[in-house]
Amino acid sequence: MTYSEYRPMKMTTPHFAGTGLGLRRSFINELMALGNPIADFYEVAPENWMEMGGAIGKKFAAFAEKNTVICHGLSLSIGSPSPLDEHFLFKLKKFLDQHNIACYSEHLSYCSDEGHLYDLMPIPFTEDAVRHVASRVKRVQEIIERPLVLENVSYYATPSPEMTEIDFLNAVLAESDCELLLDVNNIYVNSVNHQYHAEDFLKAIPRERINYIHIAGHYQEAEDLLIDTHGAEIIDPVWQLLQTTYSEFGLFPTLLERDFNIPEIAELKTELAQIRHYQSEFEGASRVQST
Predict the structure, then answer these.
(1) Dihedral angle computed from the Cα positions of residues 237, 243, 245 and 249, in that order, rounded to the nearest 10 degrees
(2) What fold, for 3-290?
(3) Is this model's pTM higher than 0.90 or not?
(4) I need a surface site. Which of 58, 129, 178, 255 has the fewest CB within 10 A?
(5) To the nearest 10°, the Cα dihedral for 88, 90, 96, 99?
(6) Looking at residue 15, what is its pLDDT?
C-alpha cells in the first residue's frame, strides 16, 4: 500500500472558519479604521510581529484582541539537517499564548543549514527525510503545545527522489501525525512544472488531515514554468481547483495570500468575495442534495 492510499482516522477541527486574509503592516491601520472586518480571520508571520514592541506592538495586540488571528511561519525550517531552533520555538509559544492563537502552520521545506538560505528549499522525497521531518514535527508540537500544520509547498527541483510528491506528503502526515495546510495554488503550480494532473494529486490527500486552505496568484515565467509569487490575481484554473477541493472534501477555512504587488483593500475585498461566493455555492448545493 502506498502512502497516497493511506487514510488516517483523525478528524481535524479548525478553531476558525470562513474566509481569511494575510495581514500586512502596510494596511493594518486601514483595516482597524473600518467599521466591519473584511475577513473572518487573519494570518500573520510570527517572525514579523513576535518581538515587536512600542506603538506597532500595541497596535497588533489591539488587532488580535478584536479579530481571529492565526500564524503562518517563515523560518522553522522543518526539513533542515541543522538542529531545531528551540530558543525560537519557546519564544513562539509565548507569542501564541499571549495572543490566544490556536493555529500555527509552516512550510514542508527547509530554509537553513548553518545559516539562513533565504528561500524555501525542497526536501528530498525519501524515507529517511520522512522520518527526519516526523521526529522534528513531534518535538515542535511538544514545545508549542499545539498541532503543527504543514503546508504542501511549490518546488522547482526534485533532489534524488525515492517516491512521488504525494506519497512523500502523505508519509509525513501519517508518520508525524500532524495536520495539513492545503495550498491549492501550489498544487496547480507544481502540476504544470512537474507535469502531473492537479486533480489526481488533490484527490489523493486524506481529508482528515486538512486544517485550512491557501489560495493565491503566481507568475508565468514560461508555458511550462510557473513561479509561486503570491503577487498577482488568482487565475481561473486555480479558482476551478478550489471548487474541486470543496466538492471533494467539503468546506474548509480558506485564506487569500498576497505578499507582493499588494493592491488596494477594495481589490483584496473582490477576491475575498469570490472565495465567499464559491463557499456559498457549495453550501447551497449541499442543502439541495440533503433535502
Answers:
(1) -170
(2) TIM Barrel (3.20.20)
(3) yes
(4) 58
(5) -100
(6) 77
